[in-house]
Amino acid sequence: MLELIESHACHGGVQRYCRHESKTIGLPMRFSVYLPPQAKHGRVPALFYLAGLTSTEETFPIKAGAQRFAAQHGLALVSPDTSPRGANIEGDSEMWDFGVGAGFYLDATREPWSKHYKMYSYVRDELREAVLAALPIDGARLGIFGHSMGGHGALVLALRNPGLYRSVSAFAPIAAPMRCPWGQKAFSGYLGEDRETWRQYDASELVVRADAARFESGILVDQGIADQYRVQQLHPDVFEAACIEAGQPLTLRRHEDYDHGYYFIETFIEDHIAHHARALA
Length: 281
Prior knowledge:
Blueprint: E1 3-10, E2 13-22, E3 27-35, E4 44-50, H1 59-63, H2 67-73, E5 76-80, H3 119-134, E6 137-147, H4 149-160, E7 167-171, H5 181-191, H6 195-198, H7 203-206, E8 219-224, H8 230-234, H9 236-246, E9 250-255, H10 262-280
Parallel strand pairs: 4-5, 4-6, 6-7, 7-8, 8-9
Antiparallel strand pairs: 1-2, 2-3, 3-5
């Protein structure tokens, strides 16, 4: 049962913020959804957007300017929060890159995180099923994209679930988390020290697996050259090499002067919406 928190007219459609009791997380969860004007007349394709570290369900709809283009293409936009909130785990709010606001879109197996931190299953199953049951969204035409930590989550969810997502893209994703401090901190904290268990949440590892999904329409990734996290944390070149090895079509666009923030996302969001619209038409 979805509880409507806010609703705002937007580009002929409606921007909503919702809350529901999550059985997967074991706590209330919030998400945003934009329904384009075409949703008044029938089911529409949808894009799931996964936000980055410290973000909430409000970050993307407020900052990205995506609704204008989603309305033009008749796409719904769904964006969950980035972690459970209210778990009251000791120390869960002490670090900006681990705990609250930093769920990393995985299912934790290490105590005490394993009770509530199950963002992978929440996004893939419960959130998807909840919006399909309550909203005019076509479950056969879903895409997924995200930014930074959320770009990592989008790539992983798409590569592991080819039957659910028909398109995928990312802005400055954490593309090889096993090789970067953010990923190593999250994976060791949530999953433990067995690095073999980490591979299931690393897009650069997943894409070369024989059973990995192949997106024949291509994966789109945009990366700012002036991004302060590019070299140490994001490793787009590693993902690019893995896609070449796997024969996965990839468009990796590198942009001079652009950093890691939402001005970068706002600049190229139209291209990402169009990329998904072509695949979901």
